[in-house]
Amino acid sequence: MARPTSFGKDTGLQTRMVMTMFLLGLVYVIFVGVLFAAGASAIFIVVLAGGLFLAQLFASDKLALRAMGAKEVTPAQAPELHAMIDRLCVQADLPKPRIAVADTPMPNAFAMGRSQKSATVCATTGIMQLLSPTELEGVMAHELTHIINRDVVIMTVASFFASIASMITQFGFFFGGGYGGGMGGGDNDDDGPSWLVVMLVSLAVYVISFMLMQALSRYREFAADRGSAVITGRPSGLASALLKISGVNERIPSQDLREAAQMQAFFIAPVGKQVANLFATHPPLEQRIARLERLETQLQGGAAPLAA
Amino acid sequence: MGFLDALLGKRKIAGPAPDRLFALTTAYVDLQTVQGITTRGAAGIVFQQIATADFRQIVADTQELLQGTGQETGSKIEVTDDEFGYKWVIVRDDDIEDLVVSVNTVADNLGAGGYADRILAAVFAFEDGQKQRLYLIYNYKRGTWYPFAPAPGDKQRATERELQLKAQIGAGLPMEADLARWFPLWGIPI
Predict the structure, then answer these.
(1) I need a surface site. Which of A55, A158, B111, B116 has the fewest CB within 10 A?
(2) A90·B139 Cβ contact <8 A
(3) What is the crossing angle of helices A235-246 and A195-232, to 10°?
């Protein structure tokens, strides 16, 4: 066989994803260690947060759908969308998810659900009007890849300790009450670190894990873009959809180059781009488009290695 | 698609499962004599179109090849696009064996070019004694068959009839066990 698959591997993305997960895990292990050293009262918080975590895992999809005003649609109500997803499911070898539509002009789509069996994909009426079938297919394949990759579970698990840390930071004042002993019990002179230390550690854990989670989320978006390209075989379809959704299509200049050159002098160079990168859950559009373009080049036989 | 692949967000598209396409030729004997279900002399294979030069060349070459062999067997070949942007290679021949062989030729040629993972399904058109249209769909990803019986009305399917068919022919064909994967194909051009 000349070409076993249409696309190569993206080792760089994998490596960075593993690194991020490793760092996130490391932060959490240290955090749990400090909690244990602080005593049993902290364990109580972990149990409480564990309950919240399970509730989040099992109810978040319904809550999110309700928040978006999305309603599940039958094949009779949205025949084109159903037929499109049917075919993508065959192609991706995935059981069919529930399909919901949210009646809002904002172009958006998302996937929910903790497992492949209980997944729901939702599209807004806005995105269905805005995009051509090929582009919509790219977007839906992106959402299906989120389901395949179990991104909802992974991000919920990843945020588990971050939310405990944020709870401790917020309620620490309440529990600790300003005096540096354990809450209750009265054994003020035990060996464990004081609540102030726990709170400071929690704060640090929260900040660091927040940034790591954002990074992880961006990597998973890249992975979903890639998955979409692999499923549909049309990286350019998704790229075009992303451009349309972000409204950049209107920004493709219609202005004459000679006029624009004069304007360049007045532009301020973009500042703080690195900081913006650290805090965004979605990668910048330019990067996503660039990667999809590379996939298209690969597909066309250019065989440009996908540099990380 | 293991746990690790999901964790790492790897997406490898499933290649074709072990080929069980030819199971139809033996199963058809039973289908015809016992169930009174006969071929409508048409079959199709549906796949995604990839906008590359070599892909277009493969499709064109395959069409030419099939038209060449069709002059001996009497098969007629059509290539059409459907409303979802997928390509169909349609074979018309009253002999079920010729249909299966032609469909397999298309799949083989796409596979030889490295595009095996683009094939969606093969569809064979049948009708029963009451002239009701029935389809048997072969899912290349899973190597399984399932029945598809469109009912009158817009995008309705006769689920009861499909379940009957499963019971009737399930012994002869490797059937898709997961009913959630009996994906309909609307607007089949045969």
Answers:
(1) A55
(2) yes
(3) 120
Amino acid at B143: G
Highest averaged pLDDT of the listed ranges A26-40, A97-111, A291-305: A97-111
Closest CA to A6 of B119, B23, B117: B117
DSSP, collapsed to helix, strand or coil, labels residue B1 as coil
Q: Is A89 in contact with B112 (Cβ distance < 8 A)? A: no
Nearest chain B residue to A218 by CA distance is B9
Element housing B48 (H / E): strand B38-48
H/E stretch holding B94 reads none
Reference A173, options A193, A198, A206; nearest CA is: A198
Distance CA(A246)–CA(B23), nearest Å, equals: 49
Q: How far apart are CA B47 and CA A77, in angstroms?
A: 26
Mapping DSSP onto H, E and C, the string for chain A reads CCCCCCCCCCHHHHHHHHHHHHHHHHHHHHHHHHHHHHCHHHHHHHHHHHHHHHHHHHHHHHHHHHHCCEEECCCCCCHHHHHHHHHHHHHHCCCCCEEEEECCCCCCEEEECCCCCCCEEEEEHHHHHHCCHHHHHHHHHHHHHHHHCCHHHHHHHHHHHHHHHHHHHHHHHHHHCCCCCCCCCCCCCCCCCCHHHHHHHHHHHHHHHHHHHHHHHHHHHHHHHHHHHHHHCCHHHHHHHHHHHHCHHHHCCCCCHHHHHHHHCCCCCCCCHHHHHHCCCCCCHHHHHHHHHHHHHHHCCCCCCCCC
Q: Do B186 and A79 touch (CB under 8 A)?
A: yes
- Taking a C-beta distance cutoff of 8 angstroms, is the pair A236, A292 a contact? yes
Looking at A272-286, A288-302, B28-42, which range is the least confident one? A272-286
Tokens of A225: 């873009």
Minimal CA separation from B33 to chain A, in Å: 32
Tokens, residue A105: 């002009």
Query: Per residue of chain B (190 residues), what is the pLDDT tens digit?
Result: 456 666 666 656 665 666 789 989 888 988 888 888 999 999 999 999 888 888 999 999 999 999 998 888 888 999 999 888 899 999 999 999 999 999 999 999 998 888 888 899 999 999 988 888 999 999 988 889 999 998 887 778 888 888 888 888 877 888 888 888 888 888 888 8
Reduced to 3 states (helix: H, G, I; strand: E, B; else coil), residue B149 is coil
Pair of tokens at residue A271: 């500042």
- In single-letter form, the type of residue at position A216 comes to L
Residue A100, amino acid: A
Buried b (16+ CB within 10 A) or exposed e, A205-221: bbebbbebbbbbbbbbb
State how far the Cα of B162 lies from the Cα of B184, in Å rounded to an integer: 11
